[in-house]
Amino acid sequence: MPAMTCPKCGSPMTTGYLLDQGQHVKVTEWIEGAPEKSFWTGLNLKQRRRFPVTADRCERCGFLELYA
Questions:
Q1: Cα first-last separation, the chain
Q2: 8 CB-near residues (< 8 Å, 6+ apart)
Q3: What is the DSSP string of 1-64?
Q4: Which of 1, 16, 29, 44 has its CA 20 to 30 A from that of 36?
Q5: pLDDT for 62
Q6: b/e per residue, 56-65, with b = 16+ CB within 10 A?
Q7: CA distance 52 to 1
Q8: CA distances (Å), origin 4, targets 27, 43, 56, 66
Q9: Arithmetic mean of pLDDT over the chain
Q10: What is the mean pLDDT of residues 59-66?
Q11: Is-contact 55 16, C-beta < 8 A?
Q12: For residue range 10-55, what is the model confidence (pLDDT) as tens digits?
């Protein structure tokens, strides 16, 4: 895979991830559909597609590009 370049300034980008430090430390996820409240878990995530979010960050300007 060729190195990513920033669409804003043309500098190199580094791949990483977003960290969710709620009750547990984990990688942020993209969840399909609109949020639906759940009494027991806060949000109902049953039968929803979930994908971890990765991020490319520009080494010069800090621009983030997210992928799920």
A1: 17
A2: 58, 61, 63
A3: -PPPB-TTT--BEEEEE-EEESSSEEE-EEESSS--EETTTEE--TT--EEE-EEEEETTT--E
A4: 16
A5: 97
A6: bbbeeeeeee
A7: 20
A8: 21, 35, 8, 13
A9: 92
A10: 97
A11: yes
A12: 999 999 999 988 878 899 999 999 999 999 888 888 889 999 999 9
Task: Tell me the two tokens of residue 14.
Answer: 């580094």
Helix (H) or strand (E) holding 68: none
Which residues, other chains included, contact 28 with Cβ-Cβ below 8 Å and sequence gap of 6+? 17, 18, 19, 20, 52, 53
State how far the alpha carbon of 1 is from the alpha carbons of 4, 19, 26, in Å: 9, 24, 26
Joined tokens for residue 24: 């547990």
